[in-house]
Design brief:
about 1000 residues, mainly beta, 22-stranded antiparallel β-barrel, five-stranded mixed β-sheet, 45 strands
């Protein structure tokens, strides 16, 4: 690692030198953003005699755009030339997030904060709940569905009326309050508009899928004492399907001999690579069209219904033994229609206005309204997998009584009964199921601001109210109906024919007709008997009436309301020899109210293989007082052209948590006019959210698929997972276990921090606290006919007592612990109960709890060089982040585990923009880069290991170009190509777990990669 960093450092200096000598460019940090601010002010009304601004990270007005904190500015013009469709795409880009993974439309199959379809932004890899999003300097309230509504959903933000985005990559709780732990994203909208602009945009992929469309209308009017402006816009992204791309169409083990390149993974009988399903982490495939049979013969066996099979070699008459992966049925073609990039539509309306009262100290009344409607869905294949020996004993039984229905299911095959089988779990491809969400979000802000009767002091009184109303729907198996469909009796004469199924030849009830018991005891119920042990049923051909009886959509709704009242004052205090001392102070009160009502089927535990969920309801109130002072300490001294200090502090009191205080100290030292040093030191905190505190006890049962030891024989033998599974299963069953198929899933008990404390599971939740430090420099030498700027900032953030819960990841995290920790039931293993005598998982606890620490550290680089060439102007901007640490520490007794350089945690990310303006034309080239990542060493593998496993990616680059023509007749057209070389996301092997190797198809699931492929985009704008 040290050699790599030394090599990278040398490369960085070489690149910096090459760029400074060869290119010219734009700006991306606060000191160079003044030009952008001035450009914006040309469009906007000047409300004061002097041009003063309030920049992100401070509440003090100042006459120049600078800060002691690292601030990055992205203008709308940059976003247009880069071919981004929405503000969401801009915020989730590597330029903003420094390469940390984001929750976007490709982050499917995971429980996410805000529910499916929600897009969030996370700075420094510390999580979206630790990044504060502002709109025009005021908090963007949470939006989304389900109980974990905590971060802002950036889908709600307008795009067409955005002027610029300011990103503060530093803790700022002392200025903005809770959540500003990793930084702040502030979206600034345009003002002072005096025309109407129509805009249309489309981005079409060359290979089809994930097409984007948007249209917008922006209009405004500015008078002597008023201004009003607004926008209407529509955005849509189509789905990208598994079958749309070569790299996702056939997920395999992706293991090849490093010398001969011969395939080493699970293969078909003819030796070709086998597409999903191939076992754990095989690419999201669903096992189907065979049954798992348990009996008196030891380990479970797998059989496929095949009428042509005769007994011998483990086969039975009519049943083929398919224990070997190569023998099992291929993936159902329906899985090619699954989404890998979920579709979404958003409708947004935005309005702002102001009116000068010419009274009350030149007061200005102002207001802002925003409405957003999001429709999103995820279309995915579903599997019905029963647990005949689990806590919910659903399945086909023979000779087992006491289950609430007959000991012998009439559809149980006699061939299997004859060899001692007593339980069957058919693995059934059920078809597609849509998970849909609709969210309506309202945000209204009203206020008054003006001058106080004191020199240069101003006031700003604001009331902000936001409300999110979400509805969500997803498919679920009805547990009660499943039980009724397995509780069968001989059908009485006169039973409706559609409620009767005759047991076929070869079953224990052959020739007899059966119906559900409930149809006899409660006529009119309409229960359909379930015979799912046929080849047709297991491959997804389910009779329509049975499908409708067992499976259907269930719905819930989520409301989140936030109201904020704030009074802030700022102005000059007194004058020092070096200049004026300015200050700001104020009060803020915030009320939050969350009410999530899950589907009634989840409330009463009737959703099979889904958690039993109660209503999550809670309120919180916070009162805050804050102050900030900006003081020029020295000026025009030897080696001190300017020395300024900024100190801010905040006292916060939560009804639920209690009180706490934060501070931040910043220094700006300019020894000479061309060189500046800046630094900050401060604290932040985040009180546990309503859901994290108030979630009541929820229990449910997972299927056997969540067992990390399920088919562990396909895992890497040297991995902790393989070793721990073999040891645990051998201890539980009393005999050596070298392969395993879980037959029953565990029960889970999920609780919020309050109840976890009452039950003695944890000691209760504490607020997160963090410390952040930055130290940077800016160099802007005076050059003739050109300009050059170089900025670099070191930063470090450490969050202590981080609040989190982990879901089924607890099981994976436990079994991936070192064998020492696993055997001592340390770490996450303390939440997992012992296995039963059959080897199955029994129960685990999933509380919201505090973990010891999470830390991130790195260096940011920004380079700018500009000059006129010919009759045009050429600019280049280069930005990069070199991550030094991304560590996680579970408890004080554990070592911190650093993930930097492993897959999904790149060490270096960066981008380069080359821009040339000539007359009415602008030409743009954009490069994004993600460094190579390597998790091989984590699993004890060499890069060219003989086993063929590869958890390593190479340097990934994307190249894009665009051109824009701006007509004197007030229209413009932009066209470009994203991902010119159609770069696929890098592929990795399957067969590993632990969070580093999540895959989409054969490729690593990481938001910094492009899954859409080469695309052509076009934007047309007309102003009236």
């Amino acid at each position: 690692m040290k050699q790599f960093k030394n090599k990278l450092l040398k490369t960085s200096f070489f690149v910096a030198a090459a760029i400074s000598a060869t290119f010219v460019g734009g700006f991306s940090y606060a000191q160079d953003a003044k030009n952008s601010e001035e450009k914006t002010k040309v469009e906007e009304k000047k409300n004061t005699a002097s041009e003063v601004v309030v920049i992100t990270g401070s509440r003090i007005r100042r006459d120049e755009f600078n800060s002691s904190s690292p601030i990055e500015v992205i203008t709308r013009d940059e976003a247009i030339l880069a071919g981004t469709a929405t503000t969401t795409e801009v915020l989730q880009s590597s330029a903003v997030t420094s390469g940390s993974a984001q929750v976007n439309n490709a982050f499917l199959g995971f429980v996410t904060e805000g529910g499916p379809g929600s897009n969030t932004v996370s700075l420094r890899g510390l999580g979206a709940v630790r990044t504060l999003v502002l709109l025009n300097g005021r908090r963007l309230a949470p939006a989304g569905t389900r109980g974990q509504v905590a971060p802002a959903d950036i889908n709600t933000l307008p795009s067409s009326i955005v002027s610029r985005i300011e990103v503060l990559k530093d803790g700022a709780s002392s200025v903005y309050g809770s959540d500003a732990v990793a930084g702040v994203v502030n979206i600034i909208t345009r003002r002072g508009i005096n025309d109407t602009t129509f805009e249309a945009f489309t981005d079409q992929t060359f290979d089809g899928g994930a097409e984007q469309y948007s249209a917008s209308l922006v209009s405004g009017k500015t008078g002597d004492n008023f201004q009003v402006s607004g926008s209407l816009e529509y955005n849509e992204t189509k789905a990208l399907l598994v079958g749309d791309r070569d790299w996702s169409r056939c997920p395999t083990d992706n293991r090849y001999d490093p010398v001969t390149r011969a395939f080493l993974g699970v293969a078909n009988l003819d030796g070709t690579p086998r597409c999903f399903p191939i076992g754990v982490n095989g690419g999201g495939g669903i096992a189907q069209d065979y049954m798992v049979v348990s009996g008196f013969f030891g380990s479970p066996r797998r059989y496929n219904v095949d009428p042509t099979t005769v007994a011998g070699g483990g086969n039975l008459n009519g049943y083929k033994l398919v224990n070997a992966l190569a023998l099992r049925p291929q993936a159902n073609p329906g899985q090619l229609e699954d989404d890998i990039y979920s579709p979404v539509k958003t409708y947004n309306a935005y309005l702002n206005g102001s009116y000068d009262l010419r009274a009350l100290g030149n007061a200005e009344l102002y207001g802002e309204f925003m409405y957003s409607h999001r429709e999103s869905e995820n279309n995915s294949s579903r599997q019905l997998s029963l647990d005949p020996l689990g806590a919910d004993p659903l399945g086909y039984h023979y000779g087992i009584s006491g289950l609430g229905y007959p000991a012998d299911n009439p559809f149980f095959p006699t061939a299997l009964a004859a060899i001692g089988a007593y339980a069957i779990n058919p693995l059934i491809y059920w078809g597609h199921s849509k998970t849909g969400s609709e969210v309506d979000y309202y945000r209204t802000s009203v206020g008054i601001k003006g001058d106080l009767p004191y020199k240069n002091w101003k006031y700003d009184l604001n009331l902000l109210h936001s409300k999110s109303k979400g509805a969500y729907t997803f498919g679920s198996f009805n547990k009660a109906h499943l039980y009724q469909s397995f509780d069968l009796v001989v059908a009485p004469t006169g039973t409706p024919a559609n409620l009767v199924v005759t047991a076929p030849t070869g079953t224990v009830g052959a020739g007899n007709s059966y119906t559900c018991r409930v149809n006899v005891t409660n006529p009119g119920t309409g229960c359909i008997p379930a015979n799912l042990l046929t080849d047709a049923a297991m491959s997804g051909n389910i009779p329509a009436d049975l499908r409708a009886w067992l499976f259907g959509d269930i719905s819930g709704d989520t409301d989140y309301t936030q109201t904020t009242a704030q009074l802030s004052l700022d102005g000059d205090l007194f004058t020092l020899p070096a200049g004026k001392v300015s200050a700001a102070l104020g009060f803020e009160f915030r009320w939050d109210d969350l009410n999530d009502t899950p589907p009634i089927e989840m409330q009463n535990g009737n959703a099979y293989n889904l958690t039993k969920s109660g209503i999550t309801k809670g309120k919180d109130h916070v009162s805050e007082v804050f102050a900030e002072i900006d003081a020029p300490l020295l000026a025009n001294k030897p080696l001190v052209k300017e020395l300024k200090a900024n100190l801010s502090g905040r006292f916060t009191d939560y009804d639920s948590y209690g009180s706490s205080s934060t501070y931040k100290l910043g220094l700006n030292w300019t020894p000479v006019s061309t060189f500046k040093v800046r630094g900050t030191l401060g604290t932040s905190f985040r009180a546990p959210g309503i859901f994290e505190q108030k979630l009541g006890g929820q229990s449910g049962f997972y299927s056997s698929a969540v067992d990390p030891c399920n088919e562990f024989e396909n895992e890497l033998p040297t991995s902790n997972l393989y070793k721990n599974c073999a040891a645990a299963l051998t201890a539980a069953t009393g005999a050596p276990v070298t392969d395993w198929l879980a037959f029953a899933g565990p029960e889970v008990f999920v609780v919020g921090g309050d109840l976890a404390k009452q039950l003695g599971i944890t000691s209760g939740l504490k607020a997160e606290k963090s410390k952040a430090s930055t130290l940077g420099m800016v160099w802007q030498p005076e050059l003739t006919g050109r300009s050059f700027s170089f900025a670099t900032d070191w930063w470090r953030i450490k969050v202590e007592d981080q609040v989190d819960n982990f879901g089924t990841s607890i099981l994976s995290l436990c079994y991936n612990e070192s064998t020492t920790v696993f055997n001592a039931k340390g770490g996450f293993c303390g939440l997992v109960d012992d296995r039963d005598g059959n080897g199955n998982l029994t129960k685990f606890k999933d509380p919201y709890t505090n973990v010891a620490a999470q830390a991130a550290e790195g260096l940011d680089f920004n380079i700018r060089y500009k000059q006129d060439i010919g009759t045009g102007s050429l600019r280049v901007t280069a930005r990069a982040t070199w991550m030094w640490e991304q560590s996680f520490q579970l408890s004080a007794d554990d070592d911190a585990e650093d993930s930097v350089g492993r897959t999904r945690y790149p060490e270096v990310t960066g981008d380069l923009t080359v821009n040339y303006e000539w007359k009415d034309w602008t030409f743009n080239y954009f490069l994004e880069a993600v460094s190579a990542m390597n998790t091989n060493v984590y699993y004890g593998l060499a890069d060219n290991n003989a086993s063929g496993y590869q958890f390593k990616t190479e340097l990934y680059t994307l190249h894009s170009i665009s051109a824009r023509y701006e007509s004197p007749k007030k229209w413009s057209a932009t066209v470009g190509i994203n991902n010119i070389f159609n770069e696929d996301p890098p592929s990795i092997s399957s067969g590993a777990s632990g969070g580093y190797t999540y895959r989409i198809g054969n490729s690593l699931n990481y938001s910094g990669y492009d899954y859409r492929g080469r695309s052509l985009f076009a934007r047309f704008t007309k102003t009236f």
